[in-house]
Amino acid sequence: xxxxxxxxxxxxxxxxxxxxxxxxxxxxxxxxxxxxxxxxxxxxxxxxxxxxxxxxxxxxxxxxxxxxxxxxxxxxxxxxxxxxxxxxxxxxxxxxxxxxxxxxxxxxxxxxxxxxxxxxxxxxxxxxxxxxxxxxxxxxxxxxxxxxxxxxxxxxxxxxxxxxxxxxxxxxxxxxxxxxxxxxxxxxxxxxxxxxxxxxxxxxxxxxxxxxxxxx
Length: 216
Description:
There is one protein chain. The chain has a single domain, classed as Nuclear Transport Factor 2, Chain: A (Roll), CATH 3.10.450. The longest helix has 37 residues, at 173-209. It has 9 helices and 5 strands. It is α+β, with helices and mostly antiparallel strands. The protein is globular and about 45 Å long.
């Protein structure tokens, strides 16, 4: 399965946090939060005709407003950059995080309309109440094909739990990007990676601006 297809399913993972309120995040543990919100997101994605039709602006707005506050993009970017993160200047770190965040936003937004008849099943949480980092394990059940492994890594901050990595079919998202980041950095340094991400985001933005395709 290529990275784009993996990210289509990874959207379900990040989307599970889409409609979590700040107060609810404070009161609920990571497993309860993910379970409760998962069903809400699936139900809304299935019922919203604009999302099903691929209304890019509606989906982008949904991701920006509801999903992003519950994702630790700074940590995701630092992990994906690996040792190169420490070599980057504060300004480069800021720019890299911004571009990586935008890339994931466009990728997740394009994947939300893929939600059709999937269901999520969760496995028992292996964690103690004192843990500040946990892995919530689940699988996506489809009407056709084998279930798809879908796990999430979350860390507890001062006020809530935030997701910082996703595992689809045994591959962690951060590790997948880590290889891509290293390849770009070897060619053009940190600035080369930032430019590569920026160019990619510009193309995705142009595509999103065109809106959904209409059948004739």
